[in-house]
What does this fold into?
Amino acid sequence: LSTRVLATNSALNASRQMARMLDGDLQSQLQAVRDAGRMLSDPGIWDGPAALQFRTQQWPPASRSVDGVLQALRTLQQSSQKVVEDIVRAGSEGKLAAPAGPGPQPSPGSSAADQAAVTSLSKDAVQRASSLYALAYKAQNDYDFSAIGGYLHDMRDLEAAKASYRDYSSKAIPELQHVIETTDDPALKVKAQNLLSIIEAQQKLLSSVDPKGLMNQPDPNVLHRVSAQAGVLTALGAVVTTSITKGGTVTAEFGQKGGVTIFYRGTTLGSAMEVTQDQALDVDRILANQSQYSGIAQSGVYITSQRNTADYYADLAGGGGRGLGPGVIRIELPPDEFDAFVARTGIQVEAPVPNPPVPGQTETVIPFDNVEEFDAMAMYFLEEEE
Amino acid sequence: VSGRSGTLLSLPVARLTVDTRSSADESAGYVYEHLRFYCSLIETLPAVVVTVDESAMVTVSQRRVYARIARDLGRPAIRAVVDPASDPAGVARLLREPGVERLSWAEIDAAERKERVAWMWQVFFFARPLTDREQRAFRDEVVGVFAKVPDLFPEAADLGAAGPLSAGEEGALLYFRAVQPTGDQAWMRDYVAAIRRFSAQEVRIVSFQGRKLAAQDA
It folds into this structure.
């Protein structure tokens, strides 16, 4: 049997490219094809001889093929992450040079096993996050991101990364708090608030990574959770970068009330009543509504962390007293579970609304396929009208 | 308030008790008089949320502003969502009273969802009366958006064009009725953009449909 181990940079690049593609558009596009096929198979939406032929002859085998490909992609996605990990692990044992970065150097006290474990868990996702932070850094010269960049570029030595980050945050947090309290510039205030949120989130993530625990815990779920945390960095990075590059117009971070993540959905009171009663989003209604209009950019359930944005859409939905008038659903989520859900599904959290009717609106779209899982962790409440 | 919602009723407005100690509905989001005027044009007011106790006392716990408007406008009845935290025996007693009717949300919903377009009132209060030129600009830039509706929704052509522009408050209030897509966000985005543009470039719009325009800004 061959025991040859070879991990070249080309292999690493190819494996990462595959992982990125599988993480990204490929699956969501296929899911969109499946959603569209299902919609077109509904005689309430499309009917007639051609529709009949489509839903009885063309779509059923195509649907099975799409489902099969999706399943294959999911399997491949799981193994591709393992491929990246294996290659990076091989690289960390001397066959590949570690990527250059301004970050901390490995401390003499940390073991090679610790370094390999931490490196292999999340390096790919962390490197993706680092490019977002690099953008943030370019746009926001007032603050020194080198410590974050270093941490993200090279976290082979966790203890050194933690020390570096503690040092950075001890300087940056008071500075940002001072800016928030004293500035008259609302845009700068938003930027500072966003950065502060990110730093606090980073601190929480860093403190939750325990290399010893990881080394002693071969349970793949633990590895998955840490990988998910790295994915969250990507999502958070996107929020910050968007906020900064768009001139600080993204005003809301995730509302944190008593340890829960808060979102809102603007709808009618009748729909809100139904959702709060069932403790489940009304997918059928949303799907039917979206199928009636061509202007929907992406099918799914639209939620937002901005209360005023939810109010805006509630007023539209409940205008003229329709649907019993406007209604806003408050959605409470356990932060850790939601973060892992986002990382696992690749859902973009609080992206700017395209061509927003009101500047600064943000939205998060939960694809219909993920609603059941979302429902399982969400609590829905009827929000007081403002 | 539990936040969970339940039974839907039509209730005599006279049966409602509004807890005036709470200011939860004293919102900065609307101008009361403007919202009341808008509601005066609407056939069915938005619903209130009520809690019913063991003696069948009905207290408005959410959306109090619509209870207040219903009284001010002399409306005989209003729709009410009964909070599930209510006393079941009290709700049962209430349902036996004359003028109290259980409604079906499913039926209301199904009927409304059949309509992709519907006649809806558009109410604008301005910071000052509009001149003739500004009224013409408003007609072209804001009311004109409705001219595109039949292109997008052929059934709108059968319902008719936008109604005449009416004025009040010595010209600081303009309102009209038009056939509007009921859930088309893309069309609505264009409409809101036109409203905001007019407010920024011509005369400031204080409220649209009773809601402060500024309150809709993120």
In short: Chain B has a mean pLDDT of 87. DSSP finds eight helices and eleven strands in chain B. Chain B touches chain A through 53 residues (CB under 8 Å).
